[in-house]
Amino acid sequence: xxxxxxxxxxxxxxxxxxxxxxxxxxxxxxxxxxxxxxxxxxxxxxxxxxxxxxxxxxxxxxxxxxxxxxxxxxxxxxxxxxxxxxxxxxxxxxxxxxxxxxxxxxxxxxxxxxxxxxxxxxxxxxxxxxxxxxxxxxxxxxxxxxxxxxxxxxxxxxxxxxxxxxxxxxxxxxxxxxxxxxxxxxxxxxxxxxxxxxxxxxxxxxxxxxxxxxxxxxxxxxxxxxxxxxxxxxxxxxxxxxxxxxxxxxxx
Length: 252
Prior knowledge:
alpha/beta; Alpha-Beta Plaits; Aminopeptidase; 40% helix; single chain; globular; 14 strands
Protein backbone atom coordinates (compact mmCIF):
# COMPACT_ATOMS: atom_id res chain seq x y z
CA UNK A 1 0.00 0.00 0.00
CA UNK A 2 1.43 3.35 -1.08
CA UNK A 3 0.43 6.18 1.24
CA UNK A 4 0.23 9.60 -0.43
CA UNK A 5 -0.27 12.70 1.72
CA UNK A 6 -1.65 15.65 -0.28
CA UNK A 7 -1.19 19.15 1.15
CA UNK A 8 -3.33 21.92 -0.40
CA UNK A 9 -1.35 25.06 0.41
CA UNK A 10 -2.77 27.75 2.73
CA UNK A 11 -6.45 27.75 3.80
CA UNK A 12 -8.78 29.42 6.26
CA UNK A 13 -7.35 32.70 7.52
CA UNK A 14 -4.30 32.19 5.30
CA UNK A 15 -5.52 32.97 1.80
CA UNK A 16 -2.13 32.64 0.15
CA UNK A 17 -1.63 34.76 -2.93
CA UNK A 18 -4.63 36.77 -4.17
CA UNK A 19 -4.97 38.36 -7.61
CA UNK A 20 -7.24 38.55 -10.63
CA UNK A 21 -10.24 37.63 -8.46
CA UNK A 22 -8.62 34.33 -7.45
CA UNK A 23 -7.47 32.99 -4.07
CA UNK A 24 -4.57 30.57 -3.92
CA UNK A 25 -6.16 28.65 -1.04
CA UNK A 26 -9.21 27.84 -3.18
CA UNK A 27 -7.24 26.77 -6.24
CA UNK A 28 -4.91 24.49 -4.29
CA UNK A 29 -7.87 22.81 -2.60
CA UNK A 30 -9.64 22.21 -5.91
CA UNK A 31 -6.53 20.62 -7.41
CA UNK A 32 -5.98 18.50 -4.29
CA UNK A 33 -9.56 17.22 -4.25
CA UNK A 34 -9.39 16.38 -7.94
CA UNK A 35 -6.11 14.55 -7.35
CA UNK A 36 -7.51 12.63 -4.39
CA UNK A 37 -10.53 11.49 -6.38
CA UNK A 38 -8.42 10.38 -9.35
CA UNK A 39 -6.03 8.37 -7.18
CA UNK A 40 -8.77 6.66 -5.17
CA UNK A 41 -11.05 5.88 -8.10
CA UNK A 42 -8.47 4.79 -10.66
CA UNK A 43 -5.61 3.07 -8.80
CA UNK A 44 -5.18 -0.02 -6.66
CA UNK A 45 -2.90 -0.28 -3.65
CA UNK A 46 -3.01 3.37 -2.68
CA UNK A 47 -4.18 5.27 0.39
CA UNK A 48 -4.65 9.04 0.38
CA UNK A 49 -4.92 11.67 3.10
CA UNK A 50 -5.20 15.45 2.86
CA UNK A 51 -3.89 18.08 5.26
CA UNK A 52 -7.26 19.78 4.75
CA UNK A 53 -10.35 18.99 2.69
CA UNK A 54 -12.19 22.26 3.35
CA UNK A 55 -11.29 25.94 3.68
CA UNK A 56 -9.72 25.64 7.11
CA UNK A 57 -6.64 27.02 8.82
CA UNK A 58 -3.87 24.42 9.24
CA UNK A 59 -0.41 25.35 10.51
CA UNK A 60 2.72 24.16 8.76
CA UNK A 61 3.62 22.01 11.78
CA UNK A 62 0.17 20.44 11.80
CA UNK A 63 0.60 19.49 8.16
CA UNK A 64 3.98 17.82 8.56
CA UNK A 65 3.09 16.25 11.92
CA UNK A 66 0.01 14.65 10.37
CA UNK A 67 2.02 13.18 7.51
CA UNK A 68 4.78 11.97 9.82
CA UNK A 69 2.33 10.37 12.26
CA UNK A 70 0.56 8.61 9.42
CA UNK A 71 3.94 7.41 8.13
CA UNK A 72 3.19 8.55 4.60
CA UNK A 73 5.36 7.36 1.73
CA UNK A 74 5.21 10.69 -0.08
CA UNK A 75 4.21 14.27 0.70
CA UNK A 76 2.83 16.41 -2.14
CA UNK A 77 2.32 20.12 -1.35
CA UNK A 78 0.31 21.98 -3.98
CA UNK A 79 0.67 25.74 -4.45
CA UNK A 80 0.03 28.56 -6.90
CA UNK A 81 2.85 31.03 -7.52
CA UNK A 82 2.94 34.84 -7.46
CA UNK A 83 5.45 37.56 -8.22
CA UNK A 84 4.90 38.44 -11.84
CA UNK A 85 6.29 35.37 -13.56
CA UNK A 86 4.62 32.63 -15.53
CA UNK A 87 4.71 28.84 -15.59
CA UNK A 88 5.24 25.75 -13.46
CA UNK A 89 8.12 24.80 -11.16
CA UNK A 90 8.78 22.20 -8.46
CA UNK A 91 10.85 22.15 -5.29
CA UNK A 92 12.63 19.62 -3.10
CA UNK A 93 14.80 20.22 -0.03
CA UNK A 94 18.41 21.20 -0.84
CA UNK A 95 20.90 18.33 -0.91
CA UNK A 96 18.40 15.46 -1.05
CA UNK A 97 19.15 12.42 -3.15
CA UNK A 98 17.22 9.41 -4.47
CA UNK A 99 14.47 8.42 -4.06
CA UNK A 100 13.30 12.03 -3.44
CA UNK A 101 14.95 13.27 -6.63
CA UNK A 102 13.64 10.28 -8.59
CA UNK A 103 10.08 10.93 -7.44
CA UNK A 104 10.41 14.63 -8.16
CA UNK A 105 11.69 13.98 -11.67
CA UNK A 106 8.71 11.73 -12.41
CA UNK A 107 6.16 14.29 -11.23
CA UNK A 108 7.87 17.35 -12.64
CA UNK A 109 8.44 15.86 -16.07
CA UNK A 110 4.85 14.63 -16.35
CA UNK A 111 3.35 17.95 -15.25
CA UNK A 112 5.64 19.97 -17.50
CA UNK A 113 4.79 17.71 -20.44
CA UNK A 114 1.04 17.56 -19.92
CA UNK A 115 -0.01 20.97 -18.56
CA UNK A 116 -0.09 24.11 -20.69
CA UNK A 117 2.36 26.08 -18.53
CA UNK A 118 5.96 27.12 -19.19
CA UNK A 119 8.48 24.83 -17.49
CA UNK A 120 10.45 27.01 -15.06
CA UNK A 121 12.61 24.12 -13.92
CA UNK A 122 13.43 21.90 -10.96
CA UNK A 123 14.47 23.87 -7.89
CA UNK A 124 15.50 23.54 -4.23
CA UNK A 125 14.20 25.43 -1.20
CA UNK A 126 14.31 25.30 2.57
CA UNK A 127 10.51 25.17 2.93
CA UNK A 128 9.06 23.82 6.18
CA UNK A 129 7.02 21.12 4.46
CA UNK A 130 10.13 19.87 2.66
CA UNK A 131 12.44 20.12 5.67
CA UNK A 132 10.23 18.72 8.44
CA UNK A 133 8.69 15.76 6.64
CA UNK A 134 10.26 12.40 7.46
CA UNK A 135 9.36 11.04 4.02
CA UNK A 136 10.24 12.22 0.52
CA UNK A 137 8.43 15.44 -0.32
CA UNK A 138 7.75 17.77 -3.24
CA UNK A 139 6.19 21.22 -3.50
CA UNK A 140 4.69 22.23 -6.84
CA UNK A 141 3.95 25.79 -7.96
CA UNK A 142 1.29 25.58 -10.64
CA UNK A 143 1.10 28.87 -12.52
CA UNK A 144 1.16 32.50 -11.38
CA UNK A 145 -2.05 33.88 -9.92
CA UNK A 146 -0.96 37.48 -10.60
CA UNK A 147 -0.14 36.95 -14.28
CA UNK A 148 -3.21 37.36 -16.47
CA UNK A 149 -2.41 34.57 -18.92
CA UNK A 150 -1.86 32.03 -16.13
CA UNK A 151 -4.83 33.31 -14.11
CA UNK A 152 -7.16 32.92 -17.07
CA UNK A 153 -6.21 29.25 -17.22
CA UNK A 154 -6.43 28.73 -13.45
CA UNK A 155 -10.01 30.00 -13.29
CA UNK A 156 -11.18 27.02 -15.43
CA UNK A 157 -12.05 23.78 -13.63
CA UNK A 158 -10.92 21.69 -16.61
CA UNK A 159 -7.45 23.23 -16.38
CA UNK A 160 -7.24 22.48 -12.65
CA UNK A 161 -8.31 18.92 -13.44
CA UNK A 162 -5.50 18.65 -15.97
CA UNK A 163 -3.02 19.74 -13.30
CA UNK A 164 -4.40 17.12 -10.90
CA UNK A 165 -4.31 14.40 -13.53
CA UNK A 166 -0.71 15.24 -14.41
CA UNK A 167 0.21 14.92 -10.72
CA UNK A 168 -1.55 11.54 -10.66
CA UNK A 169 0.29 10.35 -13.78
CA UNK A 170 3.57 11.43 -12.22
CA UNK A 171 2.76 9.52 -9.04
CA UNK A 172 1.83 6.50 -11.13
CA UNK A 173 5.27 6.51 -12.71
CA UNK A 174 7.14 7.31 -9.49
CA UNK A 175 5.53 4.51 -7.47
CA UNK A 176 4.62 2.07 -10.27
CA UNK A 177 0.96 2.40 -9.33
CA UNK A 178 -1.41 -0.08 -10.95
CA UNK A 179 -4.65 0.96 -12.58
CA UNK A 180 -7.80 -0.67 -11.25
CA UNK A 181 -8.89 -3.63 -13.35
CA UNK A 182 -12.29 -2.24 -14.28
CA UNK A 183 -13.81 -2.01 -17.71
CA UNK A 184 -15.08 1.55 -17.71
CA UNK A 185 -17.15 3.06 -20.51
CA UNK A 186 -15.55 6.40 -21.30
CA UNK A 187 -17.08 9.35 -23.12
CA UNK A 188 -14.65 11.08 -25.47
CA UNK A 189 -15.54 14.37 -27.12
CA UNK A 190 -12.43 15.11 -29.16
CA UNK A 191 -8.74 14.43 -29.74
CA UNK A 192 -6.16 16.98 -30.85
CA UNK A 193 -2.48 17.29 -31.63
CA UNK A 194 -2.47 20.80 -30.14
CA UNK A 195 -3.25 21.00 -26.43
CA UNK A 196 -4.72 24.49 -26.69
CA UNK A 197 -7.47 23.11 -28.92
CA UNK A 198 -8.27 20.37 -26.43
CA UNK A 199 -8.33 22.89 -23.57
CA UNK A 200 -10.69 25.11 -25.54
CA UNK A 201 -13.12 22.23 -26.07
CA UNK A 202 -12.88 21.14 -22.41
CA UNK A 203 -13.60 24.71 -21.29
CA UNK A 204 -16.59 24.88 -23.62
CA UNK A 205 -17.98 21.67 -22.14
CA UNK A 206 -17.38 22.93 -18.61
CA UNK A 207 -19.21 26.16 -19.38
CA UNK A 208 -22.22 24.05 -20.44
CA UNK A 209 -22.25 22.14 -17.15
CA UNK A 210 -20.28 19.03 -18.12
CA UNK A 211 -17.24 17.74 -16.26
CA UNK A 212 -14.38 17.50 -18.73
CA UNK A 213 -10.64 17.04 -18.60
CA UNK A 214 -7.74 16.60 -21.01
CA UNK A 215 -5.61 13.45 -21.19
CA UNK A 216 -2.41 12.93 -23.17
CA UNK A 217 -2.58 9.46 -24.71
CA UNK A 218 -0.93 8.08 -27.80
CA UNK A 219 0.48 11.46 -28.74
CA UNK A 220 -2.95 13.11 -28.77
CA UNK A 221 -4.66 15.40 -26.26
CA UNK A 222 -8.02 13.72 -25.68
CA UNK A 223 -11.02 15.44 -24.13
CA UNK A 224 -12.91 13.07 -21.85
CA UNK A 225 -16.22 13.91 -20.19
CA UNK A 226 -16.83 10.90 -17.98
CA UNK A 227 -16.24 7.23 -17.23
CA UNK A 228 -18.88 4.74 -16.10
CA UNK A 229 -19.23 1.08 -15.21
CA UNK A 230 -22.63 1.17 -16.89
CA UNK A 231 -22.69 1.61 -20.67
CA UNK A 232 -26.20 3.03 -20.39
CA UNK A 233 -24.94 5.89 -18.22
CA UNK A 234 -22.12 6.58 -20.68
CA UNK A 235 -24.55 6.53 -23.62
CA UNK A 236 -26.86 8.95 -21.81
CA UNK A 237 -24.03 11.41 -21.20
CA UNK A 238 -22.85 11.14 -24.81
CA UNK A 239 -26.41 11.89 -25.96
CA UNK A 240 -26.59 15.00 -23.76
CA UNK A 241 -23.25 16.22 -25.09
CA UNK A 242 -24.46 15.73 -28.66
CA UNK A 243 -27.61 17.70 -27.85
CA UNK A 244 -25.31 20.50 -26.63
CA UNK A 245 -23.69 20.61 -30.06
CA UNK A 246 -20.60 18.43 -29.70
CA UNK A 247 -19.63 15.08 -31.17
CA UNK A 248 -19.15 12.36 -28.58
CA UNK A 249 -18.62 8.61 -28.56
CA UNK A 250 -18.34 5.85 -25.97
CA UNK A 251 -15.37 3.51 -25.78
CA UNK A 252 -13.71 1.13 -23.33
